[in-house]
Amino acid sequence: xxxxxxxxxxxVQPGGSLTLSCAASGTIFSIDAMGWYRQxxxxxxxxxxxxxxxxxxxxxxxxxxxxxxxxxxxKNTVVLQxxxxxxxxxxxxxxxxxxxxxxxxxxxxxxPGTQVTVSS
Length: 120
Fold this sequence. Notes:
Elements: E1 2-7, E2 10-12, E3 18-26, E4 30-39, E5 46-52, E6 57-59, E7 67-72, E8 77-82, E9 91-100, E10 106-110, E11 114-118
């Protein structure tokens, strides 16, 4: 099994910054991708940012230019730096990882989520 532990959520004023961190632990052979998704009330879960095992990176259109994802493959961690936050960024943010427990067996895992609230 694999556990994802998120940290760094909270309340921030519009225009402010926040950093989210996620660490994966458990039976890990390798991690194909790690990233962040978010879900606002009444909306579907959407991609925020995702980092592959190489340098491939995908960002949701609404966060491009404001958010930056980084990943430490050796430590199985991923960090999301969020700048210029707006109330529209308010959501529960979920860490996600595609983890291989062996070279041929992979599963997707989700963290419990961390609340980010952008409000004055």
